[in-house]
Amino acid sequence: MFISSPLFSFMPDFLPSGDLDRSSYFPKSRCNYMGLPGLTGEQMVKVDKTMMEEMGISVELMMEHAGLNIARFAAQEATGSENGIVVIAGSGNNGGGGLVASRRLASWGFNVKVFLPRGKDALREVPRAQLERAVSCGADSFDGLPEEEPGVVVLDAYLGYGFKPREDSKSEGVFAFLRGCDNVISLDVPSGLDSTTGENLGGLTPRAILTIAFVKKALFLLPEAVRKNIFVIDIGVPSFIYRSRLGIKYDFPFTERSLELLEEAFRKQPFVHVEMNVQDSLEKSWWLPELLQKRS
């Protein structure tokens, strides 16, 4: 099942209605849009580094873009919910994105509760500033985890693409809490998932994954029911970075022209549902922004 009908409002308006056949939409040239690879954690580090060092775009600015678009998605999911939104925020940049979303959602009138499993004192400089801004806009902040939060949308902003598996009792408690929630939206990757290898200490099955900028390689290894609800969030990364900075070889089944579809999608909407195509080899698995089929 798709997540919820309000999200159809973000489907691009340049497509005709009804079920579509891909080959008819791209006659004679469908192979030119075959697919895009997943990125490793190391490649995402290069993306961030290029944005900062070559373009002068700070982590804080990227965090603002991510948090705004995450908030837009969460607002769609939480519409009609009287119980509000709970944000589980880590101490790093993934947590910072969740805190930006908290601020935005609070400013839109949602009842937002932020929980910091490692406590406020563990926050890095930029996420700490984001927390203060969120609280000033009306979000409530607590150290630790909630006892129980039935009927709420839960934003999993605890760990992102930089996570490497390790023994950590604090994180085990976070994973256990999130596994017990039935309406989780994970930011970038589900907490506890190594974005490169797919080793999964969290064991989460979120209702949706909002992966930042580009699909991560490990997402192909998740159960099919989870893969059906993956979205890529626009934070303003230009496509030349994917073309020439990351060492990607655009050999079959990958093609640079598929980046044009992503650009087109982001011109229309801030988050894009993706089609995940899992092959026998992880290195040959590919994805595309899903613009061509009406989902049911």
Kindly describe this structure.
- The chain is α/β, with parallel strands linked by helices and 296 residues long.
- Helix content is 32%, strand content 15%.
- The chain is globular.
- α5 links the parallel β2 and β3.
CATH class: Alpha Beta
| Total beta-strand segments | 9
Q: Average pLDDT value?
A: 87
Bin the strand percentage.
5-15%
Q: Summarize the main sheet.
A: 9 strands, mixed
Strand order of the largest sheet: 3-2-1-4-5-6-7-8-9
| Uncertain stretches | 1-31, 292-296
Instruction: Report how far apart the termini are.
Output: 7 Å
Percent helix: 25-40%
The CATH level-2 architecture is identified as 3-Layer(aba) Sandwich
Find the structural class using helix and strand composition: alpha/beta
The CATH topology = Rossmann fold
Please work out how many helical segments DSSP would assign: 9
Rg over CA atoms, rounded to whole Å, is: 18 Å
Supply the number of structural domains. Answer: 1
Shape: globular
CATH homologous superfamily label: YjeF N-terminal domain
The run of helices and strands is HHHEHEHEEHEEHEHHEE
